[in-house]
Amino acid sequence: MNYAAIIRMLSLAGLGYAAIMLFCAMIALFSGETAQLHVFLTTTVLVATLAIAALVLTGTPKRRALPSDGLAFMVFFWIFSGIVCAPPFLMGLPNDSLVTALHEAVSCLTTTGHSALNPQFLDLPVSILMYRAALHLAGAIATITLAATVLAALNLDGPGIHRTHLYSLSDASFFDSVPRVLRTVALVASVCVLLVFAIEVVGGIPVTTAFFDAVSAFSTGLAEPQGLINDVTREARAIGITFGLILGSVGIFVLLQMVTRDWKRTLTDAEVTTFVVCLVLFTLLAAIEGLNGLNSFGWAISALSTSGIALVSPSTTQSLPLALQLAPALIGGAALSAAGGIKLARVYVLSRRVGQEFLRMGFKQSLLHFQFRRRVQSDRTLMGIWVYLVAYIMASVVGMLLFSFSGLNFEDSISNTVGSLTNSGNLIELQNLPGHDVHQLFLVFGMILGRLEVLAFIPLLTLSFWRR
Q: Dihedral of the CA atoms 252, 258, 262, 264 (nearest 10)?
């Protein structure tokens, strides 16, 4: 294991978080939030000092970094990020729980978005809200970048749903190609956020609200916790958020095709068509359960993007069956997006394979194959997805058992498990979270496991992986 390269990459990430904290300190200064200003400045100095010291002490790695080193970095990154970003949620708010601070940081970074703070403290300072938004945006960019580099290089998913032309394995070191992908993802994220922001501002929405909505939409998270309970009532805001959630759900692969104006390939892309089919299906199911047309569509787009943003009044969706509420989140968005879930590409590949198996029942000697993004899919690649599904089911069962034995009923246990694994904050039961450290720790583990896409965690349990 190339620990020197991993430490250097974590140190660079630490400098990035220090820059975010310094920016939030400036917001606190202009807003007159003295307590938050001190916290952000102190944490900035501490994190920056440790990061620079680590860079100097480790020096230039002498070994070539491999994709397995990238996987180790991916795991350490989410743990390291949660710890580093937690202090402002501990000392900058009326909160005396280390676990709650860690939970808040991980919830923002993984774009799950919910808050475990006591509801009476949800009227957060401006600097803390800006910090939440910055962490959401940083987490979304990191999620897409790691998927397009680490998971693409390891090919953990079989059909290569994370592959793009942006990434190619470097002959010198695995991490050499990461900055190029990071810059592209950051540019696309900035454009999407600006588009949603412009739509809402032109429509008369206040600048601060428009910014939080834009970040929440692209990251498919919830930068403003009140967005979970306050429905969108103004037309411009609903249009902006809906547009942003669509951009955030279809992923960077489709967005890059749109930039090159390859409209035919964009509209016929497997993940786009699967997204449209799922959106129509869940809209119809919600309408059958009693929601009107606009409400059913708003709920479907919010649930499928795993955002939790209340595009419709939450009171109208509480009557939906639990299975219907969980199903969209389990599917989720595109592979190269910040949305959680199993991913649209895997659903598409599996559905195509199931269709083939029905055809083979009538023509047992037939030779059938299908393509995913112009690549013929073999039985070996399909096996990768089946293994992923088995791992996902096992993780869900273990999560349900843990929450059940910790005192939650069946419905809350399954909601918390699916909500954390799919990074869907709206599914997590929030009423009993404040003060329950065990539940919060389970959720933290589930949220990180969701960002590792479950299967990436398995190699870490073997000694041979760490001995390489």
A: 90
Alpha-carbon span 5 to 70, nearest angstrom: 9
CA distance 53 to 49: 6
Exposed/middle/buried for residue 356 (C-beta within 10 Å: 0-12, 13-18, 19+):
middle
Task: State the Cα–Cα distance between residues 223 and 389, nearest whole angstrom.
Answer: 30
- Structural tokens at position 168: 């190619």
Stated as kind and residue range, the H or E segment containing 319 is none
- With a CB cutoff of 8 Å and minimum separation 6, the contacts of 375 are 159, 160
CA distance 388 to 59: 38
Alpha carbon distance 446, 464 (integer Å): 25
DSSP state for residue 452 in the 8-state scheme:
T
Contacts of 439 (CB under 8 A, 6+ apart): 403, 406, 408, 416, 432, 433
- Answer yes or no: are the C-beta atoms of 390 and 381 closer than 8 Å: no
Give the model's pLDDT for residue 388. 79
**pTM score:** 0.91
What are the residue ranges in the chain where pLDDT is below 70? 61-63, 65, 118-122, 155-160, 167-172, 227-234, 261-262, 313-316, 356-381, 455-468
